[in-house]
Specification:
Chain lengths: 496, 374
């Protein structure tokens, strides 16, 4: 009974949420003025024009280009002798507005509203672009390759993609998400290559979002992910237009969100999170080596400390005698068991990592020095941790930085802690139990309903060309099976 | 709960899955002490002969598979046997699957107990293994079967660890003699029976039939997997013969694992601990698959196959298996022997299922075809 009432209440709130800011009043000058009441940046100006007529211009001055207001609207309208004022305006994007709700929406998007004495209302776009210039990517830097990256301006981002894929088949579908933020969301795909079923799934997921705010791309991803409780990201997030264009060409979907320089790419696999745009710049042998190094580093970063705990707690006999002497000598005066020692060090490491992220750049260098030398050395000298563990923690920390995807590298910590507990209880079989769980979990995940752990499970041999190793690009003649593209061949098989 | 479907089908598996499944089902617990039971080097030919027999059996199995309407799943089987008969077969299947499932978990726990944690109560291992199996099984049959490919990739490389045993001076061809028996063996059938039972397991692929792409040539991939398994059996037996020699082979328990103990690297010793741990992938995959099959068999027997599958049912079956494991361990386990009463039961059960299921399916299919043609 309690639950039923609770569910009914939630449904009621959800239903009303959509209508929270809906205006049911009639369109009039009073209602327009009421709309900007108590808004310091909201302005309404009355102007007399020819034939003794009056118009009222309503706008939000912080959203529009004030310099263009006079030359594009006020001056042309002043001398207008036409019956319909909008015919005097040079702008081609003038919209006739019939409802107050629409008027509000357009005004908040940077339109200027013109209300005449006959009750007609027009909206003229005069948005202040407020854009920063296209700059180099800060999160995914590459040495050789395109230097541009997305900005907060969604139209500019679409331009960057259109320049790379000058196709009429590159479709852009617009959505609005979040009833408070009314965030503009644009889904891009190449018609004829992208699978319509996957496009439809994405379309439905975006349309279904019923929430107050979608501030940035991660908010959107949270609503679109198939498995919200998983620690693994099911969308790739990038600010590189070259990567988005490449994914679009392979039959994937790119989603741009207004006011954020990051795009979402889907469907992806777990292994895409280990790929870097640089992989396609290097020679294929070098690229393959670097990519496999990333996989090894990922495993090292999550397994090294748990293995240390497993070996020192349960399986001393695995370690050769010479190394065992060094280990015993290093651990002989420690007050903690390997588990507590490992846990303590990992915990401290995470604090340092998090602190260095939150600090200004200059301070974080100092922090790194203090953390690395002072805390590390002092901890050994004080007899809290062994020298060997300090080395291993350092190696694991550096290895974790090799994972190109920041969101994935952040999951390492949680996995490490879980494996640490399993290792302390069950040694190596415990770690394998953890691995089984992780792989079974990854096997169960999907990204826009496409298997997340392909090309291993399910086994897509075709996709192994660009997996642990990166084959020479001319060999990659087919699009990845995982994206389920409509047109699988990458080379043009026609006469042209 | 409405969205929770354990036996849902959204994809079809190809040749890679067939190879992975058959190979893993053939290389289970028995392979670890089979060389001890065979002992005599001339039984290398025995493995080969039983391998060929197994191939004939797989031919029958693939024929039956090609006759069946696999896409219909339960209804396909019901058409073949009739609803009533199918319920009886499913009821008998409960016992067979339960024996195999318990045998897998008990066998693995026994190995871990002997080689890694001699002082640990095996009950804890049962619990952990069943927990992870339940987790995998709860994702549904499709994902469980898919996990089989992951398990295959995580375990198949282990055979490489045995390469050093084929390199002189450790390996001497004289250790393989006599290749022709000098006298009469007292129980020649026992070794052969054991090989046959070890090679059993592919018959369970019929439970995964609805998820297998019917267009592919099943026989080819069944044969490849069987060929790989027979090759590995021969390799492992030869390695044991080289390392221990015939006289000592009969005295050592789990020779396949024990010989790995002697491998040393500059960084690791006692590699068998890592190897046994990694083998958990294979055991857990098959146990999860059997757990789901057991749940399915119970549902068919109880005439509730058309009702929605639920987590509670699966958890109930898992708990039931866990209780069985505790009881079996209490009454049959911890005897320190590889072949106790319980494993003998699996030996016969595996032999019979591998012998009867393909033939039974073939006969049923032929009868049905004849009936429909009349």
């Amino acid at each position: 009974m309690f639950w039923n009432k609770r569910i009914q209440k939630i449904r009621h709130e959800k239903k009303n949420g959509n209508e929270l800011f809906q205006k049911n009043e009639d369109l009039s000058l009073e209602s327009l003025k009421a709309m900007i009441s108590n808004m310091d940046d909201g302005e309404s100006i009355e102007h007399s024009i020819s034939r003794n007529r009056k118009i009222t211009i309503v706008y939000i001055k912080t959203l529009i280009d004030l310099e263009r207001l006079n030359e594009s609207i006020i001056q042309p309208v002043k001398n207008c002798s036409e019956e319909m004022i909008h015919t005097c305006l040079s702008s081609e994007k003038i919209v006739a507005v019939t409802t107050l709700d629409n008027a509000q929406k357009l005004m908040m998007q940077g339109h200027v509203l013109i209300y005449d004495d006959k009750g007609h209302l027009w909206a003229v776009p005069l948005e202040n672009p407020l854009a920063r210039s296209v700059e180099e990517s800060q999160s995914e830097t590459i040495l050789y390759g395109p230097k541009d990256s997305f900005t907060e301006q969604i139209d500019q981002n679409i331009t960057l993609l259109r320049r790379r894929l000058p196709l009429t088949e590159l479709k852009t579908e617009k959505f609005s998400a979040g009833y408070l933020t009314k965030t503009k969301v644009v889904m891009l795909y190449v018609e004829g290559i992208a699978n319509p079923d996957i496009v439809d799934i994405a379309r439905k997921k975006i349309s279904k979002i019923n929430f107050d705010m979608i501030i940035e791309q991660s908010n959107l991803a949270a609503f679109m992910e198939d498995h919200i409780h998983s620690v693994f990201p099911q969308f790739q997030q990038t600010d590189r237009p070259d990567q988005c264009a490449y994914s679009l060409g392979l039959g994937k979907i790119v989603i741009l969100v207004a006011n954020t320089p990051f795009a979402l790419i889907a469907p992806i696999t777990f292994f895409h999170l280990f790929q870097s745009p640089e992989d396609y710049i290097h020679r294929w042998i070098v690229a393959s080596f670097l990519r496999s190094l990333r996989y090894v580093s990922y495993m090292v970063s999550i397994l090294l400390i748990p293995l240390y705990v497993a070996l020192t707690t349960h399986h001393y006999h695995i370690i050769p005698l010479q190394i065992l002497f060094v280990l015993l000598e290093s651990r002989s005066k420690l007050p903690f068991s390997p588990f507590w020692e490992g846990l303590l060090m990992l915990f401290v490491l995470e604090i340092i990592k998090e602190a260095s992220l939150r600090m200004p750049n200059k301070t974080s260098t100092t922090l790194g020095t203090i953390a690395g030398i002072v805390i590390g050395q002092a901890a050994v000298e004080a007899g809290f941790v062994s020298k060997i563990l300090i080395v291993l923690v350092g190696v694991a920390a550096v290895a974790s930085f090799l994972v190109p995807n920041y969101l994935l590298s952040k999951t390492n910590t949680l996995i490490q802690f879980a494996y640490l507990i399993l290792a302390s209880f069950l040694g190596i079989p415990g770690i394998v139990l953890g691995l089984i769980h992780m792989l079974a979990h990854l096997n169960g995940l999907t990204s826009l309903k496409q298997p997340y752990f392909s090309p291993i499970a399910p086994l897509y041999w075709r996709d192994w060309m660009d997996f642990f190793f990166r084959a020479p690009i001319p060999w990659m003649k087919k699009r990845p099976k995982q994206a389920d593209a409509l047109f699988k061949w990458r080379y043009n098989r026609g006469d042209g | 709960m409405g969205d929770y479907k354990l036996f849902d089908k959204t994809a079809e598996f190809g040749n890679g899955f067939i190879i992975a499944f058959v190979h893993q089902s053939q290389l289970l617990y028995f392979v670890l002490f089979l060389p001890k039971m065979l002992q005599q080097s001339y039984l290398l030919f025995g493995i080969l002969a039983v391998g060929i027999l197994s191939q004939i059996n797989l031919f029958i199995l693939s024929k039956s598979m090609s006759y069946m309407d696999s896409k219909q799943g339960y209804n396909g089987f019901a058409k073949l046997f009739g609803h009533r008969n199918l319920r009886i077969i499913a009821f008998a299947g409960i016992a067979v699957i339960l024996i195999k499932l318990c045998f897998i978990v008990l066998g693995y726990a026994e190995i871990v107990h002997q080689f890694i944690f001699p002082s640990m109560q095996p009950s804890w291992l049962f619990l952990f293994i069943m927990l992870i199996c339940t987790y995998i099984a709860s994702q549904g049959m499709e994902k469980t079967l898919r996990f089989g490919i992951i398990a295959f990739f995580c375990t198949f490389w282990m055979i490489l660890l045995y390469i050093p045993y084929f390199v002189p001076p450790g390996a001497d061809v004289l250790d393989l003699y006599p290749l022709i028996p000098a006298g009469r063996d007292e129980h020649p059938w026992k070794g052969m029976l054991m090989i046959w039972s070890s090679l059993s397991g592919p018959e369970y692929i019929i439970l995964a039939l609805p998820w297998i792409n019917p267009k592919q040539k099943a026989l080819t991939y069944l044969s490849i997997a069987n060929g790989i398994s027979v090759f590995l059996y021969i390799v492992l037996f030869m390695a044991c013969l080289f390392f221990f020699g015939t006289p000592y082979l009969g005295k050592i328990s789990y020779p396949v694992l024990n010989m790995i103990r002697y491998l040393q690297t500059p960084v690791f010793e006692r590699i068998e601990i890592v190897m046994i741990s990694m083998q958990m992938f294979q055991y857990v995959f098959l146990a999860s698959f059997l757990l789901l099959s057991l749940y399915g068999a119970i549902r068919i027997s109880a005439c509730s196959v058309h009702k929605e599958t639920g987590r509670k049912g699966l958890y109930g079956v898992s708990f039931f298996v866990l209780v069985c494991l505790f009881l079996i361990d209490q009454f049959f386990g911890r005897q320190g022997k590889e072949l106790n009463g319980w494993t003998n039961l699996q030996l016969w059960s595996g032999t019979l299922t591998y012998l009867l299921i393909p033939s039974l399916l073939l006969v049923a299919n032929i009868r049905r075809r004849r009936r429909s043609s009349h």
